[in-house]
């Protein structure tokens, strides 16, 4: 929408009330709510204490404001009780502000950044998503990763159990890698800067991510989350500069980026740079696809096509022919472009048009970790590789590299192919 002036207030009120056009109401007064992050400079002035909304405000998200208010009240009430009953000591009440103000400041930034990121995602949803017909279907298909399994098994009951187990595994992995689940492992790591006794899958995926960072000279970098947060916050403002965030804020975000600032061991994961954050969105779908494929192979399946956001084939089709996988058309969301044939290989496609912060498409989810900007080298990049993890990570990295660098990396690895769509009808293919 173009701002508050574009909001249909009458329709919004009727939707909230759950009433139709025949219901009459009167607006006695109104006040436009503006999302902002506010934390009081102090929580105490002599005999006056503040807590809850009088002490802090931010965009409501995931119950952080409610929990912060409850924590304020719990902290303050026992301090007051101890003082009133004479066993608290002369300076015990000083602990309220000393304890609550710093943690509230930290939580306010965390909650606000997540809320702004969610707002940016919602603004990217096309209006056609609610339309009937082919246009609406295409828009809905383009919004999220398709999840599908094509299993060929003689025992249908056994096949259904494997499907349920596969979906349960995907949900478990989302609990580790999702940036939209506040209590996921990666959100905990980003919030605290360290993760003790991490899940083995978290360790395995991070090690793979860092290996691809090294392989691509840093083009693939899981530490670009501060750049995402910066752009989400910038473009969520109605008055956002179309040229992007200011240079000083971009430089500050870039100072937090660098794959060499992540320490990974079986016992602990740590972020070295203050304010650093991870995103595994450029590799996690491939990893989840591989985990499901490996689980199905371990169950004895040899003719299966797994699509958990990226595609991996186990063996060939039942008739012995290769699986045919359509590659997404970056210029026409929801439609397919070229088709590739695969047997025991995986396919992943990356396109800047997949998510845009601005309508012009100059700022996308693809960030060059060296500049903080979103390059527009290709319409899309597809990679065919032995595993979906490799295909996913390299399709992201290759989107940032010139063709000669892509060709050199492909030539140095086995069973790899890269398809760079550089324009309408023009595709550069490296490898076989």
Instruction: Count the beta strands.
Output: 16
* Percent of residues in beta strands: 15-25%
Report the total helices: 12
Strand order of the largest sheet: 5-9-10-13-14-15-16
The number of domains: 2
Q: Return Rg in Å.
A: 25 Å
Q: Write down the oligomeric state.
A: single chain
Overview of the structural elements:
- With 432 residues, the protein is an alpha+beta fold.
- It has two domains: 4-123, 3-Layer(bba) Sandwich (FAD/NAD(P)-binding domain), CATH 3.50.50; 147-431, Roll (T-fold).
- It is 40% helix and 16% strand.
- It is built from twelve helices and 16 strands.
- Residues 137-144 have low confidence and may be disordered.
Keywords:
16 strands, single chain, globular, three-stranded antiparallel sheet, FAD/NAD(P)-binding domain, about 425 residues, T-fold, alpha+beta, seven-stranded antiparallel sheet, 2 domains
Q: Brief description of this entry?
A:
By secondary structure, the protein is α+β, with helices and mostly antiparallel strands. It contains 12 helices and 16 strands.
């Amino acid at each position: 929408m173009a701002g508050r002036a574009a909001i249909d207030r009458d329709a919004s009120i009727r939707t909230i009330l759950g009433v139709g056009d025949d219901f009459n109401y009167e607006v006695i007064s109104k006040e436009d709510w503006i999302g902002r992050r506010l934390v009081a400079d102090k929580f105490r002035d002599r005999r006056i204490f503040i807590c809850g909304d009088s002490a802090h405000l931010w965009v409501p998200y995931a119950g952080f404001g409610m929990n912060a208010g409850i924590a304020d009240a719990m902290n303050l009430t026992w301090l007051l009780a101890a003082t009133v009953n004479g066993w608290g000591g002369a300076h015990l009440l000083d602990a309220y502000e000393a304890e609550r103000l710093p943690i509230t400041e930290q939580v306010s930034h965390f909650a606000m950044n997540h809320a702004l990121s969610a707002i940016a995602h919602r603004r990217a949803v096309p209006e056609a998503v609610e339309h009937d017909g082919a246009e609406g279907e295409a828009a809905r298909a383009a919004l999220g990763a398709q999840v599908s399994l094509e299993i060929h098994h003689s025992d249908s009951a056994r096949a259904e159990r494997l499907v349920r187990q596969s979906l349960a595994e995907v949900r478990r992995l989302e609990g580790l890698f999702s940036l939209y689940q506040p209590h996921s492992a990666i959100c905990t790591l980003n919030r605290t800067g360290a993760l003790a006794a991490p899940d083995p899958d978290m360790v395995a995926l991070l090690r793979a991510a860092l290996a691809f960072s090294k392989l691509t000279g840093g083009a693939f970098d899981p530490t670009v989350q501060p750049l995402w947060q910066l752009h989400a916050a910038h473009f969520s403002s109605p008055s956002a500069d179309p040229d992007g965030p200011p240079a000083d804020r971009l430089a500050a975000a870039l100072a937090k980026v660098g794959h060499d600032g992540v320490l990974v061991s079986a016992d602990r994961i740590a972020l070295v740079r203050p304010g650093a954050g991870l995103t595994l969105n450029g590799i996690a779908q491939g990893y989840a696809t591989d985990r499901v494929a490996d689980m199905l192979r371990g169950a004895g399946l040899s003719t299966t096509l797994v699509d958990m956001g990226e595609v991996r084939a186990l063996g060939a089709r039942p008739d012995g022919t290769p699986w045919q996988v359509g590659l997404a058309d970056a210029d026409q969301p929801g439609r397919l472009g070229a088709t590739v044939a695969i047997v025991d290989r995986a396919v992943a496609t990356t396109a800047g048009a997949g998510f845009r912060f601005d309508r012009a498409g100059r700022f996308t989810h693809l960030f060059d970790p060296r500049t903080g900007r979103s390059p527009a080298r290709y319409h899309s990049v597809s990679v065919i590789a032995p595993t979906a993890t490799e295909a996913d990570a390299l399709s992201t990295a290759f989107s940032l590299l010139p063709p000669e660098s892509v060709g050199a990396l492909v030539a140095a690895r086995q069973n790899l192919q890269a398809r760079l769509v550089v324009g309408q009808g023009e595709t550069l293919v490296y490898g076989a």
